[in-house]
Structure formats: structure tokens, C-alpha cells
């Protein structure tokens, strides 16, 4: 909540009460957009259909973001990020060796769904500005995720290759073009919750592979007919990956990365959220996690803006709000209610 809501206003409101629903409708008349990610029946049950919203504000853009969209026989299914990832096929593309599919991070699509939905909303707002007419955007997170599995589907349809592999994390090998080695390998040690550490290593050229063999203390490996050329390495990829991981498991990930990079070999540690926030020197240089004081949390690292612009630099300009922090401003200044009216709403449990 804190990293995604900095700089926003927060109110409390119970739309299940008649007075609360009227306040929602009054707010709609003041807004450029309405975005919600309830299941499909919630807004209609409140009487807030697209027709009603458009009647209240003909210029408004209304976007519903749900797991399966607001039409079709699955419209009533509840969903969140992992559900959409599994239904779209993304979950099958990722996972640790010997474990069930893991998905792209636990709730990857909760974040990516917001990004994709945000782009759709911007398009709707631009169109509304051009035409003076609002629109309804029905966004399905599952369908958005399906746009990300095209290469997997193509590989299976053309080459008959499935995404899952039994011994190594899938999705890390290079298919177009075929390169080997090109994978993620387990390293020595683990984090505070017991998750193993990993490193990605790839060799795009023969010189890089020979340098890797030398670094591993096995220069003769590059002369082995099974590994002497990239084509041969691709054919014996499982065996080569096992050799490399036998070497990486005995070493610390950052030490491997530094030595590989010094030898001209492509290598990067697989970072956790803690790694990125606390230790990544590049992200600190780019001010990706500015520290802002919060009255309840103290100094808190917020997610910064990844795009740096020379003329209109974006920056994190405020902390996340506390619960109902802006009731007085929104109901008082935006809707024109006086202090007695706001106090009455609070006493009646509307806000």
C-alpha cells in the first residue's frame, strides 16, 4: 500500500449506505476517471452501471479491471495476480528445479495488470479530451497476461518444445537464437528465509565460453567435442548446465559475478527485493528508492520513478496517506460540505 499510494489522497466511505452511495455519485461528477477492480457484480449491485456513471458525467472514463473481464460466463469469477498468471499460462513458464510452477513472482500480475490498465486508461483519457465524450474500458488481467506468452506458444507450435524442463529453472535458456550456456545456476548459500541464491551466466561467443572454462578451472572443456562449438553445446545443454552448476554451487553469487564480468563473461546475480532496495548501487545512484518520512512508519523507502526526463523530471513528491486522512479536504473543499455535515456523516457511519 505504501509504495503504490504515495502522493495520493485517502478518504473513508461506506457505499453500502444510501448516503454513502450518493457521495460516490457526487464524486463521479467531479472526476475525469473512475477505476475499480472489484468482481463484475459489485458496481452494478450498487447501481453504478456504465450507463449510470455516464449519465452522471458524460465526459468520464470508467475502467473496470478484473480477472476475466465483465462479460462472458467467467465474469463472476474472483481473481488476483496468481490466478490470472496460472490461467494465462505464465505460471508454467517459471519455477525452481523439482518444484511445481511458480509464476513470475507471487503477484507479478497485480503490478503488471496495473501498468497495462494504466496505459489503457491514459488512452481513454486522451480520446475523451479530443472528443469531449467519455468511454467504458473493460480490462481483463488474464487477457493482458496472455499477450506475454507468445514466444512460448510459438516455440511449441513450431518446434514442439514445452516450457517446463525437469532439472533447471525454465524460461532462462536462449531459443532464438539458440545459445549455450544461457541459464540461471544455483550458488552457495541462501537468504534469511531459506531461498537459495542464483546467478545468470551466458556465453554469446566462443571466446566467452573459453574464458568461462578457464575460470572454472576446466580449460579442456572447451576442446571436448560435446562443447567445442555452440551448436554442440546446445545439443548437450543439460550436461553443460550440470557442470556449470556444480562449480557455482560451491561459490558465492557476487564473487562469481565479479569474476565472470572481469573475464568478459555475461553474468548477473538474481536479486531479491531486499537486494534491490538495500544493496543495489545502480538503483541507489538513480534514486529509485527515495526515503520519505511517514508519521506512522518513520523513514520509509518509496519506489521512485524509473524514467528520467531532462525538462520535466518526475519525482516522488509525497508519502502514502493515512486512513481517511483527506476526508476534510475532499468532502469539504471538493464537494463543498461544511464541518457539521462531515461530522454528521461520521456519526452515522457513512464515513
TrEMBL record:
GO terms for molecular function: CoA-transferase activity. The keyword Transferase applies. InterPro entries: CoA-transferase_III_domain, CoA-Trfase_fam_III, CoA-Trfase_III_dom3_sf, CoA-Trfase_III_dom_1_sf. The keyword Translocase does not apply. Keywords: Transferase. This is Carnitine dehydratase. It comes from Entotheonella factor.
Amino acid at each position: 500500500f505504501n509504495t503504490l499510494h504515495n502522493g495520493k489522497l485517502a478518504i473513508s466511505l461506506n457505499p453500502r449506505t444510501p448516503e454513502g452511495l450518493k457521495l460516490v455519485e457526487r464524486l463521479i461528477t467531479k472526476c475525469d476517471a473512475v477505476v475499480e477492480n472489484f468482481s463484475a457484480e459489485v458496481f452494478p449491485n450498487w447501481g453504478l452501471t456504465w450507463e449510470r456513471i455516464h449519465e452522471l458525467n458524460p465526459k468520464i472514463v470508467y475502467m473496470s479491471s478484473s480477472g476475466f473481464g465483465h462479460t462472458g460466463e467467467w465474469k463472476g469469477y474472483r481473481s488476483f495476480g496468481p490466478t490470472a498468471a496460472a490461467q494465462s499460462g505464465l505460471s508454467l513458464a517459471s519455477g525452481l528445479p523439482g518444484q511445481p510452477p511458480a509464476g513470475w513472482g507471487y503477484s507479478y500480475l497485480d503490478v503488471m495488470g496495473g501498468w497495462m490498465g494504466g496505459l489503457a486508461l491514459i488512452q481513454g483519457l486522451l480520446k475523451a479530451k479530443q472528443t469531449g465524450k467519455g468511454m467504458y474500458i473493460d480490462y481483463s488481467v488474464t487477457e493482458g497476461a496472455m499477450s506475454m506468452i507468445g514466444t512460448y506458444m510459438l516455440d511449441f507450435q513450431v518446434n514442439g518444445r514445452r516450457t517446463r524442463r525437469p532439472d533447471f529453472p525454465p524460461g532462462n535458456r536462449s531459443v532464438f537464437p539458440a545459445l549455450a550456456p544461457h541459464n540461471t545456476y544455483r550458488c552457495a548459500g541462501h537468504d534469511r528465509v531459506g531461498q537459495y541464491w542464483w546467478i545468470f551466466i551466458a556465453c554469446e561467443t566462443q571466446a566467452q565460453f573459453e574464458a568461462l572454462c578457464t575460470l572454472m578451472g576446466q580449460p579442456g572443456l572447451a576442446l571436448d567435442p560435446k562443447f567445442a562449438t555452440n551448436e554442440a553445446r546446445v545439443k548437450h545443454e543439460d550436461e553443460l548446465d550440470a557442470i556449470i552448476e556444480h562449480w557455482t554451487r560451491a561459490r558465492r553469487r557476487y564473487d562469481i559475478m565479479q569474476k565472470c564480468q572481469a573475464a568478459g563473461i555475461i553474468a548477473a546475480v538474481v536479486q531479491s527485493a531486499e537486494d534491490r532496495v538495500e544493496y543495489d548501487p545502480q538503483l541507489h545512484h538513480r534514486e529509485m528508492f527515495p526515503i520519505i518520512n511517514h508519521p506512522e512508519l518513520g523513514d520509509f523507502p518509496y519506489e521512485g520513478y524509473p524514467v528520467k526526463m531532462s525538462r520535466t523530471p518526475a519525482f516522488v513528491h509525497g508519502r502514502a496517506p493515512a486512513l481517511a486522512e483527506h476526508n476534510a479536504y475532499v468532502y469539504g473543499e471538493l464537494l463543498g460540505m461544511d464541518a457539521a455535515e462531515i461530522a454528521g456523516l461520521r456519526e452515522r457511519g457513512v464515513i
